[in-house]
């Protein structure tokens, strides 16, 4: 049980803030430690699919999500070089019961932070943790200034380079996928940008775009295959000319968007193994700390939301923490492994060239004409999943 229990969450991103609110609503006394001087997220977009929206609704944040997000009307796959439509999937027609939303990452962080504080969570900023010590003692955090913080229960929501994951599993070197991604957010006219997710596909590269904040912004993520290694970091910027040259053969409309980009973010895409140990010695991990994924199914933030709900529910349902944490990993591990693998496979489908590209595009056009519902159903196992249902049933 978590009522009255002291819980320390390391990291104030999507995973950390969501699990903090989920635990606080169940009676835990939660403190979030964040190294940054303020709760903020650099400008970028993300997509919240129905399985993630169900968690936010169960956390009492459904109205806030509706206010912050734009509902997607359709998904389009286009030939990047010609601009021609390859496949259009009308979500409103074929999946009216589902809501896929485009959300500015900063807006999602803001609504989660507000929700956490409203539930009584204490958020402490400027908490730089250099080391996590686990053993036959309560978890201990060693700060940059040498202070030690002892935790009753430690939850690592500290992302790709998680110190909690390293303490549980040891260091594991990821491998470079041979792909890099640029990201940018541009001003937009709501009258000219429809609520549509567009994927523009080309040989060895693709570009994704969709509106944010009611169409006042355009989100762009552009991916290129290359051999040159790029650091795995969210804080690098690149010369915009490199981005423009990579997509110089794409349709004029896309090149026009890229001409507006001034300082694109750049990061290397690395494949990380799903952690073998998600818990132990009074600590647990979730989100990117447990299972980083490539961004080709838009499930990174959504898996973090699912993790947060399941972790809090398991801790609330079990008298012993280690039993609860083992149950949490058992409920989540197979699903996230499938999603991570599916995301990796999706990139290859976008980057076909030559004859395989012609055959692939022809097949997509045929499938869209004859059975669009079946095409959408390919990922029903992801989007129809409801991690809150089991716990509602048990409570009832």
Describe this entry's structure for a reader:
The structure is a single chain. With 396 residues, this protein is α/β, with parallel strands linked by helices. The protein has a domain at 6-68 and 105-173 and 272-347 and 378-395: FAD/NAD(P)-binding domain (3-Layer(bba) Sandwich), CATH 3.50.50.60. The chain has helices at residues 14-25, 50-58, 62-68, 91-94, 105-118, 163-169, 240-246, 252-259, 300-317, 321-350, 354-370, 372-376, 380-383, 387-395, and strands at residues 6-10, 29-33, 45-48, 70-71, 74-79, 85-90, 101-104, 122-124, 129-135, 137-143, 148-150, 153-156, 175-187, 196-202, 205-212, 217-225, 265-271, 279-280, 283-285. The strands form 4 sheets. The protein has a 7-stranded mixed sheet. Helix 1 (14-25) runs parallel beside helix 5, helix 1 packs parallel to helix 9 and helix 2 packs across helix 9. The longest helix is centred in the C-terminal third of the chain and has 30 residues, at 321-350. The mean pLDDT is 90.
